[in-house]
Amino acid sequence: MKKLLVTMLITVSCLAIAACGGGGENGTHNEGNHAEDGHDHDGHDHGDAHDGEQHDLGHRMKDGIHYGVTQIGDVEGGKEGIFEVHVMKDKDHLSDAQVSVWIGDKDGKELEERSAGEWRADEDCFDCHVRVPKDMPEGTKLFVLIRKGDLEIKDSFELGHDE
Question: Cα separations (Å) of 129 from 17, 18, 62, 102?
């Protein structure tokens, strides 16, 4: 069982790295994972620091799991959206959960490819980077899928916009 868990954690980590660009040249931007991706990287202190106003998109509780989403910066069509997903049970952070996010229409249909979140121990959250579609129909939301053992939680959050 322990081998299976370790294998799953390694697989999820590899998928998270691949989903976030994995450094080097990739299709999203050509200067590593975050060098020239359209937002400033000063002031937010985890490994690939983010800057921008934080928008609390909400917190929920389901099946004993508390989860919430913070949007970093504004959501702009055709650019990268950055979200921090917090997942807790009782007062413990669930760093071994699997978290993925995507931008979807009102019915949850993916408008861009979903992205796996990467656990950040220094922030106690999953760091999620997802491509924002150029055209967002009315009712577009951020969808979050959390898996922990046999438990699966799918929920949506209204995107924070600069008013």
Answer: 11, 11, 24, 9
Q: How confident is the model over 27-64, as pLDDT tens digits?
A: 333 333 444 444 343 444 444 556 678 999 999 999 99
In CATH, what number does 2-158 get?
2.60.40.1930
Cβ count near 94 (within 10 Å):
20
Q: Cβ–Cβ contacts within 10 Å for residue 66, how many?
A: 15
Q: In this predicted model, what pLDDT tens digit does every residue of 111-124 receive, in sequence order?
A: 999 999 999 999 99
Backbone angles phi, psi at 103, to 5 degrees: -90, 125
Radius of gyration of the chain from its Cα atoms, rounded to whole angstroms: 15
Hey, where are the domains in the chain? 2-158
- Specify whether the backbone of 3 is left (phi greater than 0), alpha (psi in -120 to 50) or beta: alpha
- Residues in Cβ contact with 2 at an 8 Å cutoff, skipping those fewer than 6 apart: none
